[in-house]
Amino acid sequence: VIQSKTLNHYIHISSVEFSLKHLDELFGSIKGQLKNIGVCFFKNGKIQLSILNFTFNRVSNSKSMYPFFGIANTEIKGMPLFLLIMKGSKSINLHFKNVYLNYYGKWLTYLDKRRQRLEKINGRQKPKTVISTSATTNPEAAPISKNKENIKLQISVSDVTIGLIPINLKSKAQLVLQKGNIEMTFFDSHIAIQSSINSIAVLLIDDVN
Asked: 144 vs 21, 92, 136, CA distance in Å?
């Protein structure tokens, strides 16, 4: 723990490992590792969390490893992959940089089989759900409450790669987001969303061997 003129406390954690075992008999488990974690508690009340490296892998029941979240370019070092800044409980900023997120088409079959199994167990009786919230993409048109302080969540991404991996094909598609922003404002029972993407590219890779 380190103290300075602008910080109340600084905490550094070298590594954290965790596993979520047997989430589903088809899906398997999730194993993850976080490295070089820094937490800053500023005297003005701001909290900053940074992570320089992390990996998340799905581990099948046959012990096969499927990476789905981690660092995209390992040659770039010393920059946070994930940065969280909180100014009180009403303002949250998230930033992702140089990370990849893989989605495997086989996961859809797992979800479908799980749904069929649950329907069989429940006698095909689907629970009734009542949703009373609403959403809008135009903050100016939404009736923002003046009596309560709104919660703002800002998400920014740079050099983020989203991989789409099909079933039984040695190929994949990659969606590359060089820069993008999402701003969400929560007030009463409404959600206002603004988003912008400055640069996006789609890559198709025929052979991933």
From this structure: 43, 18, 11
pLDDT along the chain (209 residues), means of 10: 72 93 80 94 91 91 84 84 88 93 80 73 57 47 56 92 81 87 86 88 76
As a dihedral over the C-alpha atoms of residue 190, residue 199, residue 202, residue 74, rounded to 10 degrees, the angle is -100
Note whether 152 and 90 are within 8 A (CB): yes
Of 123, 101, 108, the C-alpha closest to 57 is: 101
Q: How far apart are CA 179 and CA 154, in angstroms?
A: 14
pTM: 0.68
- H/E stretch holding 22: strand 7-24
